[in-house]
Amino acid sequence: MSQYLSQNRIEEPIWLEPIEISFLQKKISETESQVESLEAQISELTCQRDSKLVELASFRNIIAPIRRIPMEILSEIFELAHLPNDGIFHSKHDIVLYTHNFSSVCAAWRKVALATPRLWSKLCFHEGYKSKPFESKAEQVKEWINRSRGLPLDVYLCFYREASSSFLEQILNYCHRIRTLDVAGYLKPYAALFNLPRSSFPQLNRSLFQLGTVMIGTDVPNKIQAFLDAPNYIMSKSEGLHVLVLYYKLWFFLWNTDHVKHRLEASNK
Fold it and tell me: How many Cβ atoms sit within 10 Å of the Cβ of residue 12?
């Protein structure tokens, strides 16, 4: 048997005595027990190593330089990081993604993000032609706005389908806080906006409308009064008196002209 044990490669038939077979079976059993013991030790050492790695990460987490940044500075960093590349907000700016990324790094960052109302005072939502309507996200926008803690809202929207009107209506529940209103897309999803009563936007400073005449509905009023009586809406100073200047895009003026309105309706039939 010794000649077999000393060979790395056996190319001949093996002939063993019963006592030799018994000896080998005993050695196999002993070796298997040793392997099991070693595996148990490896498992125990692995657990100890993992525990030490967690402890090490905790130590490093405590002394990390970012932990010493005051919350006010970190809040400013978040605000700068979620700005568009050109610094100009628009409906296609994925502010939800940026804010979600900040809030998901760790509990401390989420706490800072939730304690920064200005992060949540911007609403940028763009409904593409092939994307799903925002109807299912109506409740989420309520939670988003509540985190802004009463700050003026800057709203940038682009809707093409009427199904998104419920999403818009949720935003319009806070119309008294809207400071900037930038809307684009088709006119019909914004019917609720143009049906609002006078003085609905007391904090409105600026608005931009880029709406197509496709899908015009009969539920848009002849006279749009929602933007009247906004004291800060494009203010200018003249001889010590504040003069309210209501600036309308050309289409907005034409839409309130009955003659042109009838022509548009006739062309869409």
Answer: 8
Listed in sequence order, the residues at least 6 apart from 144 whose beta carbon sits closer than 8 Å to its beta carbon are 120, 123
Token pair belonging to 152: 């003026």
Q: How far is C-alpha 116 from the chain's CA centre?
A: 15
Distance CA 197, CA 91 (A): 25
Split at pLDDT 50, 70, 90, the class of 78 is very high
- What is the C-alpha to C-alpha distance for residues 73 and 253, in angstroms, rounded to an integer? 45
* Residue 263 confidence class, pLDDT cut points 50, 70, 90: very low
- Residue 52: band (very low, low, confident or very high) from pLDDT cuts 50, 70, 90: very high
Nearest to 156 by CA among 224, 63, 226, 93: 93
Order of strands, sheet of 153-159, starting from the edge strand that comes earlier in the sequence = 122-126, 153-159, 178-186, 206-212
Confidence at residue 240, expressed as pLDDT on a 0 to 100 scale: 28
Tokens 């309520």 belong to residue: 142
What phi and psi values does residue 182 have, to the nearest 5 degrees? Answer: -125, 110
Q: Counting beta carbons within 10 angstroms of the beta carbon of residue 123, is it exposed (0 to 12), middle (13 to 18) or buried (19 or more)?
A: buried
The half-sphere exposure of 138 on its side-chain side, counting CA atoms within 13 A, is 13
- Produce one character per residue of 40-56: b if its CB has 16 or more CB atoms within 10 Å, e if not: eeeeeeeeeeeeeeeee
Domain ranges of the chain: 15-61, 121-268
- Condensed to tens digits (0 to 9), the pLDDT of residues 6-44 reads 666 766 777 777 888 888 889 889 999 999 999 999 999
Dist CA 22 CA 127 (whole Å): 78
pTM recorded for the entire structure: 0.64
pLDDT in tens, 226-245: 888 777 776 433 232 222 23
